[in-house]
Amino acid sequence: MAVAIRMKRMGRKNREYYRICATDRRSPRDGRVIEELGTYDPHVPETDARCTLNGPRVDYWISVGAQPSDAVRVLIKKYGTNGTHVTQMEAARAKLSMQRIVPDPGEPAFVPTPKTEPAAEAPATAAVAEAVAEAVAEPAAEAPAEEPKAE
Predict the structure, then answer these.
(1) Tens digit of pLDDT for each residue in 116-151?
(2) pLDDT (tens digit, 9 = 90+) per residue, 2-45?
(3) Which one, of 8, 87, 93, 21, lies nearest residue 54 by Cα?
(4) CATH number, domain at 55?
(5) Residue 56 forms part of a structural domain
(6) Position 144 in a domain
(7) 51 burial class (0-12, 13-18, 19+ CB within 10 angstroms)?
(8) Residue 60 forms part of a structural domain
């Protein structure tokens, strides 16, 4: 069986990510895989943090004759066991895993003041509020107490 190390497309439309897999060369791109060896997410803003590889497993598959695709060959050269960008990748991953600190926004630039009623209308509204409070209180006072029913 001819084994290839290639990327398997995952995710949704316009937001894809890839799994780097060891697979039979005859199987389709998104088909059955033998083993998953890492991931590649092109939407991560930090370039060196986009790829994760299981280095020892990639080395094993290459040692038994697996052929990486052109794109995966570049990723292995950069981020594999003895890659050229391994230290940058580790630093970028550590930076992404750190907690984000959001600065205090400070006081708002504009705070609207509540509208006040003119002095002439204030006594009239107070009188209406008192009348409503009395009307609500009167029916409650006049209501007869219910007797408990014996069953």
Answers:
(1) 776 555 566 667 777 767 766 665 555 555 666 665
(2) 999 999 999 999 999 999 999 999 998 888 899 999 999 999 88
(3) 21
(4) 3.30.1320.10
(5) yes
(6) no
(7) buried
(8) yes
